[in-house]
Amino acid sequence: xxxxxxxxxxxxxxxxVMLKSGNQGLVFFVIVANTFIIPLxxxxxxxxxxVIPSLRMEDRRERIFPFSIISLLYMITAYSFYIxxxxxxxxxxxxxxxxxxxxxxxxxxxxxxxxxxxxxxxxLLGIILxxxxxxxxxxxxxxxxxxxxxxxxxGTSRLHLNAHTALEVLAGFLLGFGVCFGSSLMIWA
Length: 189
Known about the structure:
Helix content is 76%, strand content 0%. The chain has seven helices and no strands.
C-alpha cells in the first residue's frame, strides 16, 4: 500500500501541492524498493530459512519478528529521506505516518491479529480524503472511489480466505484510516 499512497502523492496531486523537482520517478523507485521489494525479499528469506512457517503468517506470534524488521526498515527509510531533505516535507511526513501504522501493527500483533492489508488500504483512503479536503480545484472523486472499491475488495478477500475475522478487518481499516487521516489533516493545520 505505501507504493499506492506514494503513487497518489507523487503523480496524482496537482503540481502546486508537492514541490516538483523532476525526481518523482527516482523517489517513487526508492519508496517501492524500500517498502515493497526489500520487505518482500526479507519475508521470502524468512520463509525459505523457516523463520516463519508460511507467508500467510496465520498465527499472530509469527508476525512479530517480520513486522519488527520491516518497521525498522521503514524507520531507516523515513529518516534517510528526512536527513537528506531532497523531497517535499509532506512526502517525508507521509512516510513517517505509514511507519507509525506499521509500528502500531507490530505492537498490536503481540495481542491480536489485526489485518495489515486493511491498515494499508484504510491509510490510503485516509490520506486521499485528507488531501481532498484541503486542496481546492482538483477532482479527487475517482481516487476516492478507487480507494473505497479497493477497501471493499481487500476486506472481502481477507474474510473469504478466513485470514481474519470481521472485527480484525474492521479494526485494521479503522486504525489505518484514523492514523493517516488525522495525521494528514494535521499537516494542513
